[in-house]
Amino acid sequence: MQEYKSRVYTQRPAYADFEPAAKFEAIKSIIARRLTEHPKAICSYSGGSDSDIMLDLIEETRRLFGLPPVAYAFFNTGLEMKATKDHVRQQAERYGVDIAEYRPKVGIVQAVRKCGIPFMSKIVSERLERWQSKNIPLTIADEFSDSEDKKTKREELKCRYPGNECLINFLCSCDTRGVEQLNTQLVISSKRYLLEFLKEFPPDFRISARCCDYCKKQIAHEIEEAFDMAITGERFAEGGLRASPGKKDCSHMCFSETTDGKFRLKPLYYVSDKDKAWYKERHGIRYSDAYEVYGLTRTGCCGCPISHKAVDDLERIRPYEPNVVKAAWNIFGASYLYRQKYNEYKAERDRIKKEVDGQLTLDEWSMDSV
């Protein structure tokens, strides 16, 4: 069977595989070209490590090529570490730029109360939100698995539950043609025992990842309307949705035109963790205290349950910012506890499977020796 590769690989630019020094020079050239073409640009700055590298690259490129200023925007969700807010101010002073702070119309608390709490990943959260609202039984996965004619069964499920294509595919671990899909994050089987866990322990809280839409995406899109080009710090190496090519645009590329005729630049898209470490050391970049003092390896939205390390990271933050930790638990606590229960469930299933497999192996050995 031929191995499938997405456009992230088939259309990968040559510079993506350069050594760090050459790669960052190529990125500077890309930034210079796009800022020359679209000087009215805004850059989202989060105060995280990717943003620090991107800010340094942009400002160095501007200095080298004499380019006009870039507008910077920091989107405060209402649940930000003091370390992050302090770092944003320090970076603005260091580079002599204005990093404007924007707050959403609907804050994180209101968004979670209105829609639900993220769980595990954005894809899982989106699918489970729909599952909860549409009340489609999880047993459709068993129907599909037991069917001999999966194409027909998939078509039957489509007719039975119209308008739920993505959810059916997710629960049945297939595509719209009824072909089983096992090695993609878009299906439930990519999360070990999750289907069985949901059947045995259905969540008693609403699940949704739309707090991100309310607290970041909506306000970002509103602000970006006044500019010709938006610059963001997504990296393919982060995985998840950021490593998935979009179907309606060129989101697998570092530069693309959006559906509304504007442009998006992702200078770091092909920058690896190794590249970042090289740049940080070479250019003397200091990340925020969240990294350098607290010991976090990633910030993002503070306490977001999508991170499998959310609870551990909160414990690293606790000695320095206990109030933020308390707020995160008040907002996302149900998801933390549900994730913990799921992890325990997985461990128990793995233990049982190991014992059963071991017993089978022993029995088989005994039979062979007779």
Proportion of helical residues: 40-55%
Task: Estimate what percentage of residues fall within beta strands.
Answer: 5-15%
Provide the CATH top-level class of the largest domain: Alpha Beta
* Rg over CA atoms: 23 Å
Strand order of the largest sheet: 3-2-1-4-6-5
Task: Output the structural class.
Answer: mainly alpha
The number of distinct β-strands equals: 6
Model regions low in confidence, pLDDT < 50 over at least 5 residues: 1-6, 240-250, 364-370
Please count the helical segments. 15
Main beta sheet: 6 strands, mixed
The CATH superfamily label of the largest domain reads HUPs
Mean pLDDT: 90
Q: Between the first and last Cα atoms, what is the distance in angstroms?
A: 40 Å
Indicate how many domains the architecture comprises: 2
List the helices and strands in order: HHEHEHEHHHHHHHEEEHHHH
> What is the second-level CATH architecture of the largest domain?
3-Layer(aba) Sandwich
Describe the structure.
The radius of gyration is 23 Å and the shape is globular. By secondary structure, it is mostly helical. It has 15 helices and six strands. It has helices spanning 7-10, 20-37, 49-65, 82-95, 108-115, 122-134, 140-146, 150-160, 165-172, 194-200, 211-224, 273-283, 289-292, 310-317, 322-369; strands at residues 41-44, 71-75, 99-102, 229-231, 255-257, 263-265. The protein has two domains: 7-111 and 210-311, Rossmann fold, CATH 3.40.50; 120-200, no CATH class. A six-stranded mixed β-sheet has the order 3-2-1-4-6-5, with helices on both faces.
